[in-house]
């Protein structure tokens, strides 16, 4: 279903052409990183720390090096000294020293699974045998695994020289695992809450969860005699891999070529790098190409999940309005600083107009893997807390939960907690769409059945994009771009180019090329690609239109600014009966004779980003004996700007809801006291399957983004924000019990419902 | 005139106010004008000719990577916010981790060496190879501002003799 304020004049935008990569993916023909085969290829394997916190006293690789078939062994000593500089990765940033230390530990192993050495050998089995011969002397240290424990003054310190940094520049007196503290403040929250009719005060917890992409991390590197290195890898950003590898190996950027393979999911987890510099060093040492693959256990233990969190909220309501909110958010960063607590703090209140607030965020290090981005990083946990508190407040004053959200909704001009005013946004429209939906108008009846709603926000991103569009004599166009296609961007970019040029979608062929073959592109992250690379595609299309108009004007001997381009037709008229006409196809065909190739180009840093909202509605049934929660019906409304390819947009929403339901009901990193993850396989780490979910209904609310010629907003991240809270609110409705800790697993439900906790 | 929204942690520098009206042609000029009203503000936001990586500037609601030369004449609204991907504590981490004695130095003379690689880090590195104790005599030839000599004297109680052709002005 779609409700729309957008232009209806589009010819290509809003249609649903067949996806270009579908058949190759389902038949196994598509080439992923693990499929790379090269002459003389060696197999790399990584040795990982069995301890969650240990000083590395010594590493002896001499026996491993003697194993026949072993060509190279590397440890942190093989890395050049890293610099203390920060690299931007879109929705995350990384300090080069810490990145280097995370890829191969130097002084300390900070979590179980932390890489300490790597081997390249003629077969994976020989490589694994060699790993078993590496002697690492560890001095095991006490671990800290809970975010609140890690904040205590007597907690074991991961880094004795880390102090808490304030945004204001101050730092703590004593070393701490709290890497930073931020605060947002407006009005007077204490006074507003003191004067409220209803006050809700609660603590909420969410667990560390993994993105769960199907394809494990991989990297193949070939170090060439001239000092250049080629890397084949699965990544959300080939250019960011190149930049990170250049920084870690202190190698010129131009000497590194990164070839992005098809990607089997990322969700933010394939923004940082883990294997690429290791494969490159192994190749340099061995003189052979080297491929390194992670196992699923490696992915769980040694890549970047998202933070477990502790959030405390105190919220006051007066006369049906949110009078004030005080919130504290503590997010696990993992082994090194950099949790998404800033984003969580900034998005938590974004759907609402709230004058009085104080939001404090803490970025906390502990002995778990360093977190990476995961779809709207930081926002789902914040919404889990706030949207439950709002649900309780609405119940307390007897308000309809959607009407309560509508009455308090943010809109254009409302300031976010950062002070930044919102541009044109569509939260009210989303709430209204759910209010008007057949689902909301249908009754929910029966014992242990309940209904929940929740809203959520994500900023979306802009950043840098470059594209080239080459016109062929037969009227087709090759679109050369550098944004990993993770959610259908080859289609959504081709459609925007076809719309701009007034040609058929089928006449545009998009290819994601390597870092030597197109200008810089930032990562596919922050839901930015269809927006920002789309903006570049539009500009490249306009460049082609300009060149064609100028050629026609020269031929007709008329001023170029009097020549019009519309729907692939190029026309001139003097208004006195004289007119000329040519077409895109004609100009393409005659280009070799009329001035040579026509190539459109654009490189830009995109402005005009449109943030976006979603509101979700879910019905659940709880089995009080087994604790199983069945999702009966789910409807998600989202402000999608303009849905370029509606099927992909619906797919983004459905996929994110599935991940959110898993996060709410089952998924968690389950650790023993020593920091060992006990469920590091998909057998024990329970993600929802198609059998666990009904069809997810979507309502595409189109409030065009004024910052984009076609009104595009990012769509991929918003829909994972509301599900955690929506499901929890539905379970509260079904059972009369408020669950403030995730996951709401069968065990936790049964314990709570039968007083066994 | 641009309305500048001061982030809560920096309001103490600005007499507690949350917003200020500033007129300036560029982002750099705006931050410098703020520094006059809120001494120390500029250095908190700008480092090495750019907005610090852990921060972002939102101009009329849009947070992005803006150059300091960004024109401000038509801007109504500016907020300084933490970077979306931020949270990474980066200041001094390398020095502090590798060279704890150096990392503890807070006074400007030591914390901001005037040029090149961190001189104290190098001295501390070398000091681990020597047996320095109270009474040891150290000759610091080509001492510059004699930072190394002061550091060694304070940290190890050694007696230092320092000389240079260069005289600090």
Description of the structure:
The complex is a heterodimer of chains A (757) and B (169). Chain A is globular. Chain A is built from 20 helices and 31 strands. In chain A, the strands form 7 sheets. In chain A, strands 4-8-2-17-14-15-16 form a 7-stranded mixed sheet, with helices on both faces. Chain A has a 7-stranded mixed sheet with strand order 11-10-12-20-19-18-13. Chain A has a 5-stranded mixed sheet with strand order 1-31-30-29-21. In chain A, helix 12 packs antiparallel against helix 13 and helix 15 (489-501) packs parallel to helix 16. Chain A is 27% helix and 27% strand. Among the domains of chain A are: 380-460 and 610-753, Aldehyde Oxidoreductase, domain 4; 462-606, Aldehyde oxidase/xanthine dehydrogenase, molybdopterin binding domain (Aldehyde Oxidoreductase, domain 4, 2-Layer Sandwich), CATH 3.30.365. Chain B is of the alpha/beta class and 169 residues long. In chain B, 29% of the residues lie in helices and 21% in strands. Chain B has 7 helices and 9 strands; from the N terminus they run ββααβββββααααβαβ. Chain B has helices spanning 27-37, 41-45, 93-98, 100-103, 108-111, 119-127, 147-156, and strands at residues 2-5, 19-22, 46-47, 50-51, 55-59, 62-64, 77-82, 137-141, 159-163. The longest helix of chain B has 11 residues, at 27-37. At the A-B interface, strand 6, strand 10, strand 12, helix 10 and strand 20 of A face strand 6, strand 7 and helix 3 of B.
């Amino acid at each position: 279903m779609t409700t729309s304020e957008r232009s209806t004049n589009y010819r290509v935008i809003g249609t649903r052409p067949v996806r270009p990569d579908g058949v190759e993916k389902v038949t196994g023909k598509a080439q992923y990183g693990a499929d790379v085969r090269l002459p003389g290829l060696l197999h790399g394997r990584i040795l990982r720390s069995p301890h969650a916190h240990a000083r590395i006293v010594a590493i002896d690789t001499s026996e491993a090096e003697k194993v026949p078939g072993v060509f190279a062994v590397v440890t942190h000593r093989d890395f050049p000294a890293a610099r203390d500089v920060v690299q931007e990765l879109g929705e995350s940033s990384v300090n080069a020293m810490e990145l280097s230390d995370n890829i191969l530990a130097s002084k300390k192993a900070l979590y179980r699974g932390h890489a300490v050495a790597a081997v390249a050998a003629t077969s994976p089995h020989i490589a694994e045998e060699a790993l078993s011969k590496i002697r690492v002397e560890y001095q095991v240290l006490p671990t800290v695994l809970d975010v609140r424990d890690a904040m205590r003054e007597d907690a074991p310190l991961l880094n004795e020289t880390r102090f808490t940094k304030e945004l204001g520049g101050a730092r703590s007196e004593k070393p701490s695992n709290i890497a930073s503290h931020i605060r947002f403040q407006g009005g007077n929250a204490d006074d507003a809450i003191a004067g409220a009719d209803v006050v809700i005060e609660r603590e909420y917890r969410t667990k560390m969860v993994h993105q769960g992409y199907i394809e494990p991390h991989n990297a193949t590197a070939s170090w060439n005699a001239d000092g250049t290195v080629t890397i084949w890898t699965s990544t959300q950003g080939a250019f960011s891999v190149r930049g990170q590898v250049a920084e870690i190996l202190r190698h010129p950027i131009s000497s590194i070529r990164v070839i992005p393979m098809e990607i089997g999911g990322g969700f933010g987890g394939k923004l940082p790098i883990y294997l690429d510099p290791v494969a490159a060093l192994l190749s340099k040492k061995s003189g052979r190409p080297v491929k390194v693959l992670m196992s699923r256990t490696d992915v769980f233990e040694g890549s970047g999940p998202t933070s477990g969190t502790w959030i405390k909220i105190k919220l006051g309501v007066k006369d049906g309005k949110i009078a004030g909110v005080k919130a504290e958010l503590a997010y696990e960063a993992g082994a090194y600083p950099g949790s998404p607590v800033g984003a969580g703090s900034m998005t938590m209140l974004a759907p609402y107009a709230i004058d009085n607030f104080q939001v404090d965020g803490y970025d906390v290090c502990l002995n778990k893997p360093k977190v990476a981005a995961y779809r709207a990083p930081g926002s789902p946990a914040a919404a889990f807390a706030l949207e439950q508190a709002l649900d309780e407040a609405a119940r307390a004053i007897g308000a309809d939960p959607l009407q309560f959200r509508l009455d308090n909704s943010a809109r254009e001009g409302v300031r976010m907690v950062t002070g930044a005013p919102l541009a044109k946004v569509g939260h009210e429209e989303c709430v209204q769409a759910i209010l008007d939906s057949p689902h909301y108008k249908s009754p929910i009846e029966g014992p242990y059945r309940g209904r929940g709603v929740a809203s959520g926000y994500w900023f979306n991103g802009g950043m840098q994009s470059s594209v080239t569009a080459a016109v062929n004599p037969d009227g087709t166009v090759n679109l050369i771009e550098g944004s990993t296609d993770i959610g259908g961007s080859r289609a959504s970019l081709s459609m925007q180019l076809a719309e701009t040029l007034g040609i058929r979608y089928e006449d545009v062929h998009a290819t994601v090329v390597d870092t030597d073959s197109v200008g810089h592109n930032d990562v596919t992250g922050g839901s930015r690609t269809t927006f920002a690379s789309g903006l570049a595609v539009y500009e490249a299309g306009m460049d082609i239109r300009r060149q064609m108009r100028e050629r026609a004007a020269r031929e007709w001997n008329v001023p170029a600014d009097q020549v019009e381009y519309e729907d692939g037709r190029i026309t001139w008229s003097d208004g006195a009966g004289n007119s000329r006409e040519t077409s895109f196809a004609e100009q393409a065909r005659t280009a070799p004779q009329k001035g040579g190739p026509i190539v459109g180009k654009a490189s830009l840093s995109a402005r005009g980003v449109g943030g976006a909202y979603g509101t979700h509605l879910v019905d659940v049934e709880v089995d009080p004996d087994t604790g199983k929660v069945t999702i009966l019906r789910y409807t998600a409304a989202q402000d999608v700007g303009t849905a370029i390819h509606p099927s992909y947009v619906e797919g983004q929403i459905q996929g994110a809801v599935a991940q959110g339901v898993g996060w709410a009901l089952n998924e968690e990193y389950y650790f023993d006291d020593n920091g060992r993850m006990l469920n590091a396989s998909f057998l024990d780490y329970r993600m929802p399957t198609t059998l666990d979910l009904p069809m997810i209904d979507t309502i595409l609310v189109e409030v065009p983004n004024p910052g984009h010629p076609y009104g595009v907003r990012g769509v991929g991240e918003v829909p994972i924000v509301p599900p955690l809270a929506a499901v929890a609110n539905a379970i509260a409705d079904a059972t009369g019990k408020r669950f403030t800790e995730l996951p709401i697993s069968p065990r936790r439900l049964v314990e709570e419902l039968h007083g066994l906790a | 005139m641009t309305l500048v929204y001061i982030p809560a942690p920096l309001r103490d520098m600005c007499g507690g106010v949350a917003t200020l009206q500033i007129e300036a042609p560029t982002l750099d000029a705006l931050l410098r004008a703020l520094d006059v009203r809120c001494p120390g503000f500029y250095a908190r936001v700008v480092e090495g000719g750019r907005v610090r990586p852990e921060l972002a500037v939102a101009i009329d609601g849009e947070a992005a990577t803006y150059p300091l030369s960004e024109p401000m004449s038509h801007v109504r609204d500016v907020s300084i916010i933490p970077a979306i991907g931020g949270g990474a504590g980066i200041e001094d981490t390398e020095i502090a981790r590798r060279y704890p004695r150096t990392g503890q130095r807070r006074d400007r003379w030591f914390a901001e060496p005037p040029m090149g690689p961190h001189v104290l880090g190098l001295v501390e590195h070398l000091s681990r190879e020597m047996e320095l104790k109270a009474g040891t005599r150290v000759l610091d030839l080509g001492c510059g501002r004699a930072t190394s000599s002061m550091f060694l004297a304070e940290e190890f109680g050694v007696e230092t003799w320092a000389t240079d052709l260069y005289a600090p002005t």
